[in-house]
Amino acid sequence: MRVLLRIVAALLILIAxxxxxxxISAVTSDEGARVxxxxxxxxxxxxxxxxxSKLWNAGxxxxxxxx
Length: 67
What we know:
Strand content: under 5%
Number of helices: 2
């Protein structure tokens, strides 16, 4: 299960990176970027990165301490 969570987290990071690339590409294009769309993409990338970090940590080590 831990491996599956980490694979999903990596995919979320790749999607977030693509969104940031789309914003950078749109800003540098001749037509420019639509501000609302660019802000939405950046917020979406931040949410995806946050979710990926939570998934990555959810697949972390188990606590097998005995009393």
